[in-house]
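INTERNAL AUDIT FORM
Audit reference: QA-55
Scope: verify that the stored structure record matches its stored sequence.
Auditor: D.O.
Record contents follow.
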Amino acid sequence: MTTQTKRMTRTEVPEEQTWDLTDLFASREEWEHELKALQANVSDVTQFKGKLVLSAENLLNGLKAKKNFEKRLIRVATYANLKSSTDGSDPQNQADSAKVSAAMAAIGAKLSFVENELLQLTDDMIDHFISEEPELETYRKMLDDILEKKPFTLAPEIEKTLAALDEVHSAPFMIYERSKSADMQFDPIKDGDGNELPMSAALFEDSYELSADTDTRRNAYDSFIKTLNQYKNTYAATYATEVTRQVTMSRLRTYNSVTDMLLQPQQVTKDMYHNQLDVIQEELAPHMRRFAKLKKEKLGLEEMRYADLKAPLDPGFNPATTYKEATDTIREALQVMGSEYSDIIQKGINNRWVDRADNVGKQTGAFCASPYGVHPYILITWTDTMRGAFVLAHELGHAGHFYLAGKNQSLVNTSPSTYFVEAPSTLNELLLADHMMANTDDKRMKRWVISSLLGTYYHNFVTHLLEGEFQRRVYALAEEGTPLTATVLSEQKKEAIENFWGDAVSVDEGAGLTWMRQPHYYMGLYPYTYSAGLTISTAMAGMIREEGQPAVDRWLSVLKAGGTMKPLDLAKTAGIDMSQPDAIREAVSYIGKLVDELEKSYE
């Protein structure tokens, strides 16, 4: 394994560690030519303006033209986004990203007529048009989804005015992001040996919060909270403005509540939403308190503070692996999914779908982009650790899903609701863990795998779920007319944390300020969906363990279905009923068993 002292620049990275963008465009010149052509070809779609719903033929030809245009648009945007994500410091990449953003905004404005005209349709007209042009059946779900918005759509002039104010309405998020990245300064901290360390939000979240050294962890937390405290009134005003915008919009559009408005695009019922928040908070808390107490004991802490929750349980053990070993293990673990799925994973690994290099200017974290009609692209930064294998398995789960959906569905039907989207990715993590547990007798390795899985559940079922609970409280207060001051927001956040952890964790006043950490609050009801996807994948992993092939076949049919069904129906096709809390309870009891196994590993 290589040890590097200096990070490479993008031009120094060996080709095999990078993704192959020639599958999108042979060269930057070809990309630039297509970007120009697109701006001219928008007339392929705008020629239908004012007559899109006059006949079945017009509707079909207009929707086809839009779909073909969007395919090209996706390729152009993806190419610029992928280049920028691997080297954001390159001036050429920065300029190309800006070019694409400007072009997309201009094109978006020109295409806004499509939805406005589709809203003139009725259910009867859609049925009639489909009987005249059967090819329109492909678009039925998309048309039905648009019609669901019809009762909440305002007069065309008002919609146009609101659209013109888009930039103003998205200002709270922009102000929050800009302030967080450009203005926030943190006091340097000292580690357990008295060495001074630099401090930033990224260093805290990616490193210090997970540190095995208690002094580093707690000092970083104190520095983090001290800075949050200096910004609390500004960020409270910014977030309160965002909430006011949403509540006002829900009233203007005559929704029963802001929650109804925010759940509509996810196609999720209020019961499904409340089940995730209620059942997990109530029934997971006792297991997670045991986990916190185990950590306190094994780390020799006098008190388990909120700042200690992400400390590693066995800091001396961090299994290493090469990229080749990790990808071989992932391939073996996913063989249970059958040859069709395994071939996709093989292609992804062999055909440079993955950009794994660590270079200056590369975006942190991991993602999977899936341009329609090409193939998925995965960004990770590979550091020769087994944790990275779980991250890669997760992203390959997204890749397998969107590859199959793209192969089997039209562009308009590839993407399911955000409620479902994390299920295929987290299932791969669970299958990898099963495989690793079955193939080792090493107690520490088993303990490490269980801890990694609990890390995934902590992220989805605790961190994001408590964000979801905070949001639920905030919207209730806003609709009652309670002013959302920094004090109110911090009280609500602290109370949600205390209710969950009880006496297992000492929750300080600063913990209440952690609502300021998350950009998710500016993305509607997004946080709770993390737990929904993992609930579905936990149930599916159990079915695959018990049934084998029949369960795998159901799951593959769900992946191929893409966005042709609502999330409740997708889960039902897999054999899981998400209208009831049973699957959530099963997931919680599985987490309980993981904590049991962890406790046993110390006996």
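Auditor finding: record pair retrieved intact. The chain has a mean pLDDT of 95.
Action required: none
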